[in-house]
Amino acid sequence: MGYLWGDLMNQDAELLGSVLRIERTSIHDGEGLRTVLFLKGCPLRCSWCSTPESQLSYTEKGYAFDLCLGCGKCIRSCPEGALSMSEDEPKVLNDITKCKKCFICVSKCPRRALKSYGRLMSVQEAVREIIKDEIFYFHSGGGITISGGEPLCQPDFVAKILQECRERGIHTAMETSFYAPWENIEKILPWLNFLYVDIKHMDKKLHKYWVGVDNLQILANIRKTDRSEYPLEIAVRIPMIPGVNDSDINLSATAEFCRSIKKLKEVELLAYHRLGIETYKYLGIDYALKNLVPQSQEKILERAVFLSRQNLGVLIRVGGGFV
Ligand code: SF4
Ligand code: SF4
Q1: What are 204-221's pLDDT values in tens digits?
Q2: For residue 5, what pLDDT is reported?
Q3: CA dist list (Å): 190 to 104, 128, 187, 275
């Protein structure tokens, strides 16, 4: 599989993480202005995934044939001789046995037909990037949010970053599917102020059908975290996928589960969107929900009203993109 259940070290035994990108001054991933560190690697395969470039744990390159001019600049720039032009069509071929992932070719492409996803980063480098935004946290009550992919695939890397942030007085949050061994979660909870966890479906079989794994470990991890000694707050996020999990039955079952969570602070409905579809093309993988039409804003608000009548006793939010 293309994801890790562990952390990486370089030759000097320095802890490294596989990072997809860093987004600054986000207002959607926790209180105040947030720096969001997106990591690579995820054990789930949600049919609606909007960041397919975060699924594999290693750095990778994408290629959009329909944008390629066939100019050959990438081929000439490669120091490893890893690229060549197909004899049948103006299409660049990549020899993965030669490619060293330096991404020089990506920088030479005049059409952005090539893209790179991810890079390795040390803990110290990640923390240096995070604290560049410290002034914003101070004024807005914000902080760092670790997201994915699945952060729990790199537990030591995440724990060390969160520990360093907490020791500097920076508020910490993490977004996770919670599909992970408890030993990984235990490393992170002491350093976490706020936890965003997805509940994608309450039906075990349908969860497996749409996401690739069932929900038993996820629900058990939420319950165990709720009973833990750590004083963090929990927000449950529900991605609203039309015809998949937005029914009265599934929302009622999710609400029933949420009512049992004592650390629950809020529930957020995330509107389905199709913003990641372009990336599927670059990665040469099929988007499973090609014909799915996003809900209207009115429909999402109607679902939020339905949820608000389930006596959850917490804030109900609506987020995500409407397209
Ligand atoms: S990433 Fe580097 S080694 Fe790989 S094909 Fe591009 S230029 Fe060559
Ligand atoms: S540089 Fe870009 S446009 Fe030119 S051949 Fe390479 S991928 Fe195609």
Answers
A1: 999 999 999 999 999 999
A2: 58
A3: 41, 22, 7, 34
Quick one: which ligand is closest to 105's CA? 1
Same domain, yes or no: 87 and 160: no
Instruction: State pTM to two decimals.
Output: 0.92
Q: Does residue 205 share a domain with residue 108? A: no
Measured from the alpha carbon of residue 102, the closest ligand is 1
Which of 61, 75, 77, 111 to mutate for ligand 2's pocket (most ligand atoms within 8 Å of CB)?
Answer: 111
Total number of domains constituting the chain = 2
Provide the domain limits for residue 112.
Answer: 61-116
Tell whether 26 and 51 lie within a shared domain.
yes
258: in domain: yes
Helix (H) or strand (E) holding 147: strand 143-147
In the predicted model, residues of the chain with pLDDT beneath 50 are 1-2, 321-323
User: Using one digit for the tens of pLDDT, what is the confidence trace for 150-184?
Assistant: 999 999 999 999 999 999 999 999 999 999 999 99
Q: Which of 56, 50, 45 is nearest to 20 (CA)?
A: 56
Q: Would you say residue 1 lies in a domain? A: no
